[in-house]
Amino acid sequence: MHTEYSAPKRFSSTGTNAMRGDGTKMGADRSQSYQDDRGLTGESVGRPAGAGIRIGVVGVGYWGSKQLRVMQSTPGVARAVAIDARLPLLSGMGHLLANGGGYTSLRAALPHIDAVVVATPPASHVEVALEAIRAGKHVLVEKPMATSPAGARQLIDAARAAGVTLMTGHTFEYNGAVTMLRELVESQELGDLYYLDSARLNLGLYQSDVNVVSDLAPHDISIANYVLGSTPTSVRAWGSHHVDPVFEDVAHLELDYADIGVGAHIHVSWLDPRKVRLVTAVGSKKMAVFDDTDAAERIRVHDKAVLPNTDRRSPSRFSYHQGAITSPVVPFEEPLAVQARHFIECMRTGTAPRTDGANGLAVVEVIEAAQLSLAQDRRVLLEEVAGDGPPLPGLVPAPPSAAAPSAAGPSTAAPSAAGPAVTATAVTATVRA
């Protein structure tokens, strides 16, 4: 199901005899053209060999501002700049324009950066990322990587052709507690795994361009794929409109991993009084709970199980094992920082990221199948959305004001209450949950 993704070229900083990711030496003539036109290496004109990587964060809203903060303190990063059309109006950001730490368009920033983090609204991810890739920049795209499988494949193909790193921001795959949950499942500490259950609930934040499935479910789909080491074969989704007349604000997804005989249930909501971030893994011997809101005990292992009753004298068919609850020590570091270091390392070595384009595509395909299931009220096989055809009928499109316009020029669409429409040269951010 995954699209094959070849390793990107290395981000070299060791001189003109350094090896590219394709195995060729960077000779004088070809190297000069490669550096000047594509901006991939540390020896770009005016920059000394061994210089750190320059990062541009496109869209510095709630999540983009976190990316900017983390990138500014990541080893190997020489500089991290903000790129946002609203920069002069954003609190605490206006000064970046004066000192060269910010740009109001990606086009203006491209000559001064080596890599891009795309943290704009999902509808603009493909357009913004493509502009960066075609300029020879490495790209980290926030979840979801694209709003359709076709868009995700377009990014994969473009990155392969350009020889640059393409990475998806599935942050939870860099979370120590999620890694421990995966290890508990892999080692069969929990016994035979029955199912996963996830809940991601909060009061808001409502989005203007996608429903709650596209906004919140990518996290839990990514976690489920990572913990199970597999991808779903089918999806069933149902949801409701309560406050938002266009997009579902509460939804449930049922993922079937038929190849391993495990199911996963995901509940996402913008309309809940509690902030809930739970993943429960239920096995034949034990059960484990990952609670991302509990900094002290992110993982709890419950020695509990339901067993067939072998006592013929008992009227009950089952017995209930009630053991201890333990909370193992989880070596924890900010996942965003771990992800950032991995991005830099992949650029330097040319290795494919853990959450590469194929990883991002796998999640986007599940989202697409869930949207089709919502629209047609049926279970959808993943093979139905795995092709390269046009968007499937019945899917709810983004409102015109939220759609990304052509890169040929500014949009003619009227701006929405959330702000101006996104273009490849004038980029705005959104508040992401």
Automatic annotation (TrEMBL):
Residue intervals of the Gfo/Idh/MocA-like oxidoreductase N-terminal domain: 53-170
Skewed-composition ranges (Pro residues): 391-402
InterPro entries in the record: Gfo/Idh/MocA-like_OxRdtase_N, Gfo/Idh/MocA_Oxidoreductases, GFO_IDH_MocA-like_dom, NAD(P)-bd_dom_sf
Ranges of residues in domain GFO/IDH/MocA-like oxidoreductase: 180-287
Gene3D superfamilies assigned: Dihydrodipicolinate Reductase, domain 2, NAD(P)-binding Rossmann-like Domain
Stretches the record annotates as Disordered: 1-45, 391-420
Compositionally biased tracts (Low complexity): 403-420
Protein name: Dehydrogenase
